[in-house]
Amino acid sequence: MAALPAVGSPAPDFTLPSTAGTDVTLSRLRGRNVLLAFFPLAFTKTCTTEMCALSDDYSQFQDANTVVLPISVDSVPTLKEFKAKERMSLDLLSDFKRDVSRRYGTLLEDKFFSNRAYVLIDRNGVVRWTYAETTPSTRRENAELLEQLRALQ
Questions:
Q1: Does the model's pTM come out above 0.85?
Q2: Which of 4, 24, 26, 47 is catalytic?
Q3: Could you count the other beta carbons within 10 Å of the beta carbon of residue 53?
Q4: Active site residue 47
Q5: Which CATH number fits domain 17-152: 3.30.70.100, 3.40.50.1970, 3.90.110.10, 3.40.30.10?
Q6: I want to staple 121 with a disulfide (CB 3.0 to 4.6 A). Which of 11, 52, 151, 153 is the partner?
C-alpha cells in the first residue's frame, strides 16, 4: 500500500461525485479546513457507526470551519441509500474508480476497497495531519479529530 500524503505537502486535488448530486472539488474548498475520512464500505458495522457519529457531530466540525468529506469506493446510488437509511446530514463522496484512494495511498489493492484513514487539510490546501487505521474495524473518535482541528487554529 502506498503511503498517505506527507504532512506539510500540498493535498492532491480531486473531483468526486457526491450524494448531493453535485461534484466536489477539493481545491474549491480553500479558505476552510477539510477532513477527508476514507472508509471501506457502506452498510458495514464500523463504517455505519463512524459515519453516523460524524453526521451527529457535524455542527462541531462546521464550528471549526471544517468541511468533512467521507469517501468510499461505493457507487453514488449505494451511498445515497446508505445516507438515507441512516439519516445522515453529511454528504458522502464516491471514489468508484478508486483513483483518489490510490492517489492518497489508502486503497487496499487486494481487497479493492479503501482502508479507513484520515487526512486533515488546512485552509491553504496543505496536509496537516494523517492517520491510517491498522485494521478497517477500528476508527478514530470525533473528539480526537476535533482536537487535531483545534491544533490548526
A1: yes
A2: 47
A3: 15
A4: yes
A5: 3.40.30.10
A6: 11
